[in-house]
Amino acid sequence: AFGLSMPFIENRGQVRSDEVLFYARTFGGTLFIEKTGILTYNLSGRGNKGAIIKETFIDKDLIVTGEQPSPTRVNYFKGNDATAWKADIPTYGSVSLGEIHPGINLRLKAYGNNMEKLFTVHPGADPARIRVGISGAQGMKVNDKGELEVSTSLGPIMFTRPIAFQEDNGGRRYVQVAYKVCPGNTYGFSVGDYDHEMSLTIDPL
């Protein structure tokens, strides 16, 4: 729905930072996923310009795992030192950050130049607990289109207007949802009425 699916590549030493477990190269830059669940966006602009922003999920360190193993394998041959070459590196269709708050799980997918975050709010959990901190930005606001507009040195980065829905045998029922900018450069979601006895999915890009 959002363009070409991009795989998440496992870090087996080809990325120098030991904190990075997975990364995905999109048309807009590279997303690095760290052991603690921090997301680092290395955004590319024209010429040699770039910007780095980080998303942190408030509460605790997370359990990061690759999901949906892909048949695609990656080889990394750089430099003349063959001992540093990496071969047959696994890739994944999505990455789970596990439980970011009690009863709330997060999964990531990459498409084209978009990153999809799928929050699953299980019965009994409170979506108001979701808090995502952003660092490296010059400010953020919700614009009149309902997008989260994050200011960077490259210009504004748009997080698309979120959708929320519940699914059962009768199909998908959409739930009202909007971004909420919170103190300390964090954001969350305001969610309308929904069936608290069923899981709720919140899906921004």
Key phrases:
205 residues; mainly beta; 16-stranded antiparallel beta sheet; 3-stranded antiparallel beta sheet; 19 strands; 59% strand; globular
Poorly predicted residue ranges? none
Per DSSP, the total helix count is 0
Q: What gap, in angstroms, lies between the N and C termini?
A: 12 Å
Q: Tell me the β content.
A: over 45%
Overall residue-averaged pLDDT value: 88
Order of helices and strands: EEEEEEEEEEEEEEEEEEE
Assembly context of the chains = single chain
Number-wise, the strands total 19
Global structural class = mainly beta
Rg over C-alpha atoms, rounded to the nearest angstrom: 18 Å
Portion of residues within helices: under 10%
Q: Tell me about the largest β-sheet.
A: 16 strands, antiparallel
Which outline best applies?
globular
